[in-house]
Amino acid sequence: MTKDPKVLANRLLQRAWNRDGLPEIGSGLFSLVAAGLIYAMQILPRRSPGQIAAILIFAFVLPLYGFCAQPLVKRIRSRWLLERAGYVQHLPNRNLKRNNLRLLAVMAVVMPLVFLAFNYSERLLLPMTGALGALICGLVGWSARMVRLMAGGAIMLATAILLALSSVPVMIGMAILFGSQGLYYLLTGGVAFLRFMNDER
């Protein structure tokens, strides 16, 4: 157990930020929408209006949702949950941000090398995506000491490996990967939200 008050404060605030499950619900919705768009891009006729719309939404609207997710969570809490939750300010965790930047830098170097070593096999997209998602979920879960977040990362990695070893087409596998992750976080976030609402204050 660390006794550094800054570390403890960051951990407590991270747990408070995730206590009502809203960030997980938002993450789950993001993953489900991404899965639906990837699937649509694969099954719709090439260059059809539907496929073009799916590509544009995936490229521009989905990232915008990702940037707006945290302010949206804050707005929902301040509008409907303030009396129950109190004011919770997400405290930027500099160590977590630093670790995430290091992780991205390592992945930027490692991924091309892995693809080169395996002759640019397209199927490597699945385990590499799973590994990256697992590391991010693991870091966030570890910083808050929340088992359900770390478990989500482990499940994502296991699902990605199984899909990579299967005969499922790569992009359909990506849709399944994001869809299963989205369902998991919708479930855990929904359970956390129900528990939060049923807590006696």
Give a brief description:
This protein is mostly helical and about 200 residues long. The protein has helices at about 5-20, 20-45, 50-85, 95-115, 125-145, 145-165, 170-200.
Textual characterization of the structure:
This protein is 82% helix and 0% strand. It has 201 residues and is mainly alpha-helical. The protein has one domain (13-89, 121-198). Helix 2 (22-43) packs antiparallel against helix 3 (49-85). The relative contact order is 0.17.
Number of strands: 0
**Unreliable parts:** none
Q: Can you tell me the overall shape?
A: globular
Determine the mean pLDDT.
79
- The total tally of domains equals 1
From the N-terminal CA to the C-terminal CA, the straight-line distance is 28 Å
Summarize the helix and strand pattern as letters.
HHHHHHH
For the sheet with most strands, the description reads:
none
Number of helices: 7
Rg estimate, integer Å: 19 Å
Structural class based on helices, strands and sheet pairing: mainly alpha
